[in-house]
Amino acid sequence: MLLFEFRSFLLDGLLNTLLLSLVMIAGGTGFAIVFAAGLSLPSRWLSRPVFLIVECLRDIPLMVTVLLVYFVLPNIGISLDPFWSSALSVSVWGGANGAHIIRAGLASVPKGQWETVQAFGLGGWKGLLLVIVPQAMPVILPPYISLVTGLVQASSLGAVLGVNELLRSAQVLIEQTTISRGGSPAYLVYGAILVVYFVLCWTIALVGRRLEAHFTKPYSRDRHSIDRKDASSEVLVQTAPLDVRT
Amino acid sequence: MDFTYIIDALPDLMKGLKMTLMVSGLGILLSCIIGAIGAALRMSGFKPAEYLVTSYVEFIRGTPYLVQIFFIFYGLPSLGLRLSVFWSGVAALTVWASAFQIENFRAGLAAIGHGVHDASASLGLKRWHHALLVVLPLAARAALPSSMNTIVATVKNSAYLQAIGLVELTFVAVDRIAYDFRAIEMFFSICVIYLLCVFTLSGLGHVLERRLNRPFAGR
């Protein structure tokens, strides 16, 4: 069978997809934190431009962003190879989507929490990371996990620029076997790739659900005790899930 | 930036925009129809149909859109279904968007409370009158914001179709860059055009939303 015969070639592509996805997830998270910080700057003159950039990145098709970075950056003296070019463009897009997820998550934590943290003398980064962020996690995680699967799916865009990831190796495989053997079952190759991506995203969603359960655990224990019911329900106010815009 | 070059390229870009709008218009129309049917099937209570629709939605949402396009354009001919570039594009957009529309419409239907059914029954409305005159307006109002998002995303996702050689806006831009190397001008213009499309559509969505909310506003 064709797929079995070229398994090492396809596996190479899968490894590159995983690598590219990891770079995109890391980069996207980084940009998301930067953009979220930019959105919550105290001065309107500083936060407005960030908002404008984020909104443009969300509203321009991802395909255009990827091609734009690849074609326009060399004009201003930055030449990136296809791998880093697609990694950068998808990361920036992921950051724009992630910024709103993080901002909404932090906003869902009641203000009193922050005041309490400061009253305990835990202001600044320590209070944010140890008290506020864990409480924001139940709100951040569900849309963030779907963003992560979106980033894994977006790694297939690397094929357009010629990165040797899974989709590209499928294309090469079909081309090569068509030339050497006069025809190859394209539906089989692309179908197999679809299944591989689906399994990948399914696994991420499963891990995400586990992680979610971990962060909601402290509140679910309270749900059964009557006297602290109001306190727990206040923390678990869910905002409408933010959509990831392709 | 050379604006005379952009003006010179404008006729080509308009041709591309026309193709973009045609493909995405057909995709939006078909995906709304399939979305409504799928949502109805999913709420029907007939278990096999429910599982089928749910797995369709999960599979489409769990796989990259670009691979779906390649599967439809390059894969289906060897299974005996040969579509032109245009109809492959429409099919790809429809398949992708209908998965999301099924979810949107299902959520819209689920948002209608049980009291509505009781109220219709007590007014003596027939089943079809109940579905058309009571459930549909309420469900449309609940599903509008999220399905508007999907509609906007459908227009944006038509840009992916340049990968199979459909001559739409992005393809025109990349094609001209290959000849003239005016990347900055071309990308600036298509970004502006895409943003205008997106803002127009979401503006229309807001107007419609306000119109559908009118019976519920005030008093």
Automatic annotation (TrEMBL), chain A:
Protein name per Swiss-Prot or TrEMBL: Amine acid ABC transporter, permease protein, 3-TM region, His/Glu/Gln/Arg/opine family
Main location class: membrane
Similarity comment: family membership: Belongs to the binding-protein-dependent transport system permease family. HisMQ subfamily.
NCBIfam families: HEQRo_perm_3TM
Signal peptide (residue range): none
Pfam families assigned to the protein according to its UniProt record, in alphabetical order: BPD_transp_1
PANTHER family, sorted: L-CYSTINE TRANSPORT SYSTEM PERMEASE PROTEIN TCYL (PTHR30614:SF0), MEMBRANE COMPONENT OF AMINO ACID ABC TRANSPORTER (PTHR30614)
GO molecular-function term, one example from the UniProt record: transmembrane transporter activity
Keywords: Amino-acid transport, Cell membrane, Membrane, Transmembrane, Transmembrane helix, Transport
Record GO cellular component, one term: ATP-binding cassette (ABC) transporter complex
Residues annotated as domain ABC transmembrane type-1: 14-208
SUPFAM superfamilies membership: MetI-like
Localization in the cell: Cell inner membrane; Cell membrane
Entries under CDD domains matching the protein: TM_PBP2
Topological relation to the membrane, as annotated: Multi-pass membrane protein
Residue spans crossing the bilayer: 20-39, 60-78, 187-207
GO BP term, example: amino acid transport
UniProtKB/TrEMBL annotation, chain B:
Membrane-protein topology: Multi-pass membrane protein
Spans through the membrane: 20-41, 53-74, 186-208
Molecular-function GO term, any one: transmembrane transporter activity
Keyword Membrane assigned: yes
Compartment(s) where it occurs, according to its Swiss-Prot or TrEMBL record: Cell inner membrane; Cell membrane
Keyword Aminoacyl-tRNA synthetase attached: no
GO CC annotation: ATP-binding cassette (ABC) transporter complex
Pfam families given in the database record: BPD_transp_1 (PF00528)
Keywords: Amino-acid transport, Cell membrane, Membrane, Transmembrane, Transmembrane helix, Transport
Coiled coil spans: none
Domain ABC transmembrane type-1 span(s) in chain numbering: 17-205
Annotated GO biological process: amino acid transport
Family stated for the protein in its record: Belongs to the binding-protein-dependent transport system permease family. HisMQ subfamily.
Name this polypeptide is given: Amine acid ABC transporter, permease protein, 3-TM region, His/Glu/Gln/Arg/opine family
Organism from which the protein derives: Microvirga lotononidis
Lineage: Bacteria, Pseudomonadati, Pseudomonadota, Alphaproteobacteria, Hyphomicrobiales
